[in-house]
Structure formats: C-alpha cells, structure tokens
Amino acid sequence: MVTALIVDHGLRPESGTEAREVATWLARRGIRHCILVWQGPKPAAGVQAAARDARYALLTGWCRTAGALHLLLGHHGDDQAETVALRAARRSGPDGLAGMAPVREIAGLRLLRPLLCVPKRRLLATLRAAGQPWIEDPSNFAPRFARARLRQSPPGLSAADAKAHAEARATLDRRTAAWLAAVARIDPAGYVRWPRKALAEAPPEIARRALQQALATVGGGAYPPRSARLDRLLEELRAASGCAGRTLAGCRIVPWRDDLLICRELAAIAPPLRLARNLWQHWDRRFLVRWQASDAGGEPVVRALGADGWRACKAHGSCSILGSLPSVVCAGLPSVWRDERLVAVAGLGPVGSAPGGAVITLRFRPGQPLAGPPFVAIRAGLRPAPYLRIAHDDTFASI
Fold first, then answer.
1. CATH of domain 3-159
2. Strand, coil or helix: 307
C-alpha cells in the first residue's frame, strides 16, 4: 500500500489551498494520501532550515505511527547537483561533496531517494505527457535563499561529481563498517566501547570515521562535530598515553580498563519526558519508549538515572550490573520513574517488585546506526558490508 504525504508548511497564505489541490489530484488517480500541517509559530530567521526540520519530523512521525518502514523522498538530479555545489562553496569535505544519500537509515525507518539520477526536465516531461499539472513553490526562486540564488547561475559541480565522491565515500563506509564489526561492542543501554589499542592501530581514515560514527550514534546529533575538534580528539586518543577523558558531540569519551568507552554526556541529555499511555515516544533522540497499562496510576517519566537513581538501585540491591561500569555511564542510563519511584533502568530491567501489570518497553534506536548500509547501493559483484544495527528491546513487565 502506497500513501502520498503532502506537507503544508503554512508559510504562505495559499499553501493550504495548494495542499488540498494536490490531494485532489492524488484522489483522482486512486492514490491514498494525507496532508500534514506544520503547526505553531514560524521563525523569523533560518526559515528554510526550520521548515526542513519540521518537514522531516512530520514525515517520519507519520511513518512511525502508521508502521511504515520506508519513506520515499522526491529529490531529483538537479537537487543533488545543487546540494553538492552549495557544499563545495562552504568548503565541505569529501563526505559533504558526496551529496545526498540514496539510502539512509534513521531510527526505525529507512529513507529512500529513488530519483537522484533523474534530471528535473525528465520529470517535467513525464508530467506533461500525462497531462498532469504541478505547483511551483515561489520560494524556490526567492533570491534571499542561497539555493534559489544558485539556480540563477548553473552550478560548477554536477550530479556526476557527486557520484564520484559517493563512490569514494562508499568504499570508506565499507572499510569502516568491517572495522567496527570486528572491534566495537554496542550496549543496548546506549553506549559503545572498543579496545583502546584498536583505535591506535587502525588506519587514520578508518579511526577517524569510526570515532565520528560512534559519537553520532551515542550523542544522537544530526550533524558531525567540527573537523578540527574531531581531529584533535582523535590525535589524543591515538597517542600512546591516551587521555583522561574528553567531551564532544554530547558524549563522554573515557578510558575504562583496556577499553575506550563512549557514553552520553550527562549535561547534554534531554530533559525528563512524561509518557503517554500506549504511545511510542522518542526520548533523547536515541530511545523509543512505550508505556502500556490499564490501571489509573500516575504516568511514568523517562529520564537519566542520576545520583538519586543510583541510590535507589542500591537500596533494592540491584546495583551489581551498574557497579561494574564507570559512574559516568551509570548516571546517564535511561531510567523510568513512576510516582517519584524508580521502576526500571535500561540494561538492568525492573527495580523492585511493585505490582500493577504495567509494561514499559525501551528500545535503543539511535538516529545514526553505528555502521549502516554504505553510502551508495551495493553494486553487482560487491559483498555487503557488516551491518551493526541495534535491534534490542528491554521490556519491563509488572512494574
């Protein structure tokens, strides 16, 4: 079953009418559809970036609620060329110059861009041949936006340039995935570790990429840290003496026994989230949480364990697992509280034996898998890379 999703950003007075017109066209062709509206106040600056974030939030939110596993996006070849040209103007590195990914894994969903190799002129010709009108967004030609200004002068880079960079990036993706599959351990409580010497012995480009991906997985950030900060951290970690502990991209990077441990930085963790009954909710950009209950008790809250949670674990004699980990990891573990009482900890399970018949499920679903599919589709003759995707559920019953 295919469903077309129409996003009404509400940035122009006529946007609602246009969305309904597109819905009418889809209905005439027997295509199931849904209009998603960006509600609330709109920013005075950074409108396009905010609209993009809102658009993706609406689209992915609908897919998760509907149980859809694949979201197909309409970016075409001209969009790809513009993206590469913009990134080149901003002096992006090789990853940026690879352009948009044809396939991207996010939490519980796969984004697909099947039209990246199709030029816009071909799509318009197809519409004309089918007698199908279309709507042009005037903001695409507004000179106050960088992408619109770029359209007025042909970009110096093309989709072919993006393809060349993408092939190089895909090779590095596969090599990094193989390295991570061999040395990294991902804990369902949300942290990553690997032997300290492994990072020092890895080829520099693999070590750098592995560190960057681990920071994205654990920190939950949408964008990688600045190159200079990442390079400085990598240099310290690869040094013979190691380092006493650093923070970057919402993560703590600490030596632990013979390992290097990357965990969430306590100060960067999201605030507590009150759980609605029977609804999947995303917390800290990394965990999907659902509370199922039939009783009339108070709604539970998911938050970082913290020092008070540690004391509650000790009081219930449930700290044996936590005692084997550094305190910086324990303090940041996701925990569930109900009526000011700790009832569960990710990686540890229920705390105490309170009745009630409620079930809370915690799933580690980082927006950036530690090693997902390579940047481009696997070509004939190439073996798929090892794929470290978290698929772990911590379900706590009778809490």
1. 3.40.50.620
2. helix
pLDDT digits (tens, 9 = 90+) for 122-149: 999 999 999 999 998 887 655 555 555 5
The pair of three-digit structure tokens given for residue 113, joined into one six-digit string: 């861009």
Who contacts 82 (Cβ-Cβ below 8 Å, separation ≥6)?
A: 147, 150, 151, 155
| Beta-bridge partners for 397 | 359
Q: Give the distance, in angstroms, between the CA of residue 127 and the centroid of all CA atoms in the same chain.
A: 34
Which strands form 70-72's sheet, in the order they lie side by side?
70-72, 109-112, 103-106
Two tokens, residue 259:
């390992």
**CA 144 to CA 150: how far, in whole Å?**
11
pLDDT for residue 399 is more than 50: no
Long-range contacts, stretch 339-345, CB < 8 angstroms, 24+ apart? 339/297, 339/298, 341/312, 342/309, 342/312, 342/313, 343/300, 343/396, 343/399, 344/394, 344/396, 344/399, 345/305, 345/309, 345/313, 345/318
The percentage of the chain sitting over the pLDDT mark of 70, rounded to a whole number, equals 80
The Cα–Cα gap between 133 and 367 comes to 36
Cβ-based neighbours of 171, under 8 Å, separated by 6 or more: none
Please name the CATH architecture into which domain 187-267 falls: 2-Layer Sandwich (3.30)
CATH topology identical between 3-159 and 187-267: no
User: Which tokens belong to 12?
Assistant: 């122009």
Number of Cβ atoms within 10 Å of the Cβ of 87:
19
Q: Is the Cα dihedral 116, 122, 126, 131 positive or negative?
A: positive
Residue whose structure tokens are 């796969």: 110
Tell how far CA 368 is from the center of its chain.
4
Structure tokens at 362: 């915690």
- Of 385, 386, 388, nearest to 368 by C-alpha is 388
Domain ranges of the chain: 3-159, 187-267, 271-369
How far apart are the C-alpha atoms of 19 and 29, rounded to whole Å?
16
Q: What's the CA gap between 139 and 148, in Å, rounded?
A: 8
8 Å CB contact between 342 and 311? no
The residues facing 7 across adjacent strands are 36
What is the 3-state secondary structure of 131-155? CCCCCCCHHHHCCCCHHHHHHCCCC
